Amino acid sequence: MDVPGSAHRILVVDDDPDIVTTVSVTLELEGFEVMTANSADEAEEQIKRHGLPHLAVVDIMMPGRTGIELCTAVQKYSDLPVIMLTAVDDEDTVVSTITKVAEDYVKKPFHPPELAARVKRVIRRIGDFAFRLEAQTVIDDYLSIDFAEKKAIVDSKPVSLTPTETKLLHILIGNARRTVRTDYLLGRIWPLDEVYEDTLRVHVHRLRQKIEPKSSSPRYLITQRGTGYSFLPANS
Fold it and tell me: Which one of 14, 110, 145, 156 has the fewest beta carbons within 10 angstroms of its own beta carbon?
């Protein structure tokens, strides 16, 4: 587990090296740990190598895949919060970006203190992730999760997860020991779709069959009747 007060990790993605340097220095001075990438492909390689960050600051327009395409891909299997950097003045593009993938956006050219303030605001909302974010997030001796590869290591054996199962785990593990309401889960996992509680219940059931020592008597994924679900590590 992360020790209290350990640095949140921020992934900065922009094809302009000067902007990457400016953002990195700004956030490091605020006490954040920073990973950097100059393209969507490099960003995904960083995630596979080092694990998911707590938050990403991503440029919209980049050669190859755009920042929106990167975030869409990563958010299929995680609930990664994103702040978009944009030189685009088109209001429809900005609104669409926030609706689909972003918590917030900052227009270029930007003032570094404003960006730092927006990052800290999002970090306060998401709180502390209960486990150290690595390529494999270790829960205990029985269970680890590789979010980028969409798999669990269950009793030393690899188990494939669907993108939805991986995203569900990412949300619940990020809120370990706390009850996550059903309506919140539905909104975060299927933000643009009308999905009902029965669908979520099916995914939880299938996930329990994959990661629980005994799915009929779950030790990790606990139903809080009438409210939602909790993820309880074995040492809780």
Answer: 156
97-108 burial by CB neighbour count: b if 16+ within 10 A, else e? beeebbbebbee
Does residue 136 form part of some domain?
no
pLDDT at 48 (0 to 100):
95
Q: Which two tokens stand for residue 65?
A: 């895949």
Go through 44-80 and write b for each residue having 16 or more CB atoms within 10 A of its CB, e for each that does not.
bebbeeebbbbbbbbbbebeeebbbebbebbbebbbb
Answer yes or no: do 78 and 112 share one domain. Answer: yes
Residue 236 lies in a domain: no
Residue 89: the pLDDT is 72
Token pair of 13, please?
A: 């993605």
Asked whether residue 2 is domain-assigned, the answer is: no
183/214 same-domain check: yes
- Which stretches of the chain drop beneath a pLDDT of 50? 1-5
Residue-range definition of the domain harbouring residue 117 = 9-126
pLDDT at 2: 37
Strands in the chain per DSSP E: 9-13, 33-37, 55-59, 82-86, 104-107, 137-138, 143-146, 151-154, 157-160, 179-181, 221-224, 228-231
CATH number, residue 216 = 1.10.10.10
C-alpha to C-alpha distance for 211 and 226, rounded to whole angstroms:
23
Instruction: Return the structure tokens found at 159.
Output: 């188990």
Which pTM was predicted?
0.88
Q: Token pair for residue 214?
A: 């005994």
Instruction: Find out whether 32 and 10 touch, Cβ atoms under 8 Å.
Output: yes
Burial class for 174, CB neighbours closer than 10 Å (0-12, 13-18, 19+): buried
**Structural domain includes residue 51:** yes
